[in-house]
Design brief:
Layout (H helix, E strand, L loop, with lengths): L1 H12 L1 H35 L10 E4 L2 E3 L1 H29 L14 H17 L1
Antiparallel strand pairs: 1-2
Helix pairs in contact: 2-3
Length: 130
């Protein structure tokens, strides 16, 4: 039992498990923001562009007492797309901050020993001729 507890602690403290937990928490906190953006900002604009159509009230009644509310589905699709784009830019920004130093920032590697020896031989030959 103790060994299993140690394995669980190792798993839970690993970066991937913590990153996942943080992602879920941020996603849950981010959801109301996106819902408000879609319902109160984006959908009225889209409704205005489409001559006042309110997507949330769009429905089809093919049979009596059966109503298919495809407008709510369209709202969910728009909400998903906005969430996906927002998360894409959020993750892109985080990845830009996490990037390791680029090759331009790093010092150039030292020349190989053979090149150093060849330069010494060249310099010695130049000294002999002058």
């Amino acid at each position: 039992m103790k060994q299993m507890w140690e394995e669980f602690k190792t798993f839970a403290v690993k970066g991937n498990a913590l990153d996942l937990a943080i992602g879920v928490i941020i996603g849950a906190a981010f959801s109301p923001i996106v819902s408000t953006l879609v319902e109160n900002v984006m959908m009225p604009i889209i409704g205005y562009i489409t001559a006042g159509v309110d997507f949330s009230s769009l429905a089809v009644t093919p049979v009596e007492s059966v109503e298919i509310k495809y407008g709510l589905f369209l709202n969910a699709i728009v909400q998903f797309l906005i969430t996906a784009v927002a998360l894409f830019f959020l993750i892109k920004g985080i990845n830009m901050m996490r990037k390791p130093a680029t090759a331009a920032d790093a010092a150039p590697p030292p020349p190989p020993p053979s090149e150093v020896y060849l330069k010494e031989i060249r310099d010695a030959l130049v000294k002999q001729t002058s």
